[in-house]
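Encode chain A's predicted structure.
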Amino acid sequence: MKILIVGVGGVGGYLAYKLIKCGYNIDVFATSKTNEMIRKNGLKVIDVDKEDTVFPNVGIKGVYDVIFITTKAYHLDKVLEEIKGHYNIHTRIVPVLNGIGHFEKFKNINAKFIKACIYILSNKADINVIHKKTSLFYLCLEDDEVLKNLFKPCKDLRVKFSKEIDKDIWKKYLFISTFATLQSFYKKPTGWIMEHKREEVEKFLDEVIKIAKFYGADLKEEKEKVIKQALNIPYESKMSMQIDFEKGEKTEVDNITGFLASKSEFIKKFYKRLKLRQSF
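Encoded structure for chain A:
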């Protein structure tokens, strides 16, 4: 099976590593700087307290059976240009991105589009170094026989093939949109948000649940689960969007918050302030 992973950050880098350990020959593609470093020194993964280095192929060559896209949403237009000519009607294209709004970009792709979401606490520690900080790994994929066969050898990976993938994606979006937005807005971690802005958390969750219902996803039972999850994670936990704001880098605010802001006046006030901050 010919597999390409576009984006070698916390998600793509770790996924490439695990698929190589499952016995696959994996191609990866990222920025020119990242590509060159991986080509020379390999891809190093720190998986909680274990370190290992693998050597994926670097570059895009030929037509693929499966293409995982794990970049930030704002790179998606460029990525879709780069993979043109490297897929056909049998190819599975799997964007593992945050949010909902990016699905529109795949409507006219002449390949098999597979929806997905992932739960993982992993980030890029250096150009070619991925640090997975906890044992958490849960990949949720739209039910598909090709992907089921792909992951069969990966006995240590928790992978779910869902017949309700839209609901599963909205479940993750409920959590990440709420805390990525409020953390970035207040420049504070999860613990502080829950301690000082609990009322806004609950209001934000209510707004997302209302929007999800419009799109056919019933999340009414998820609110208390999200609150419990937020209370149980480390006080200083931060979403990647807040970290990007802190570094002064481009963020996923359009994909994570903007999609919801167009449907909620309450969420729009956070989005407008964050967009203003990003413009400076």
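Residues 100 and 255 are 7 Å apart (CA to CA).
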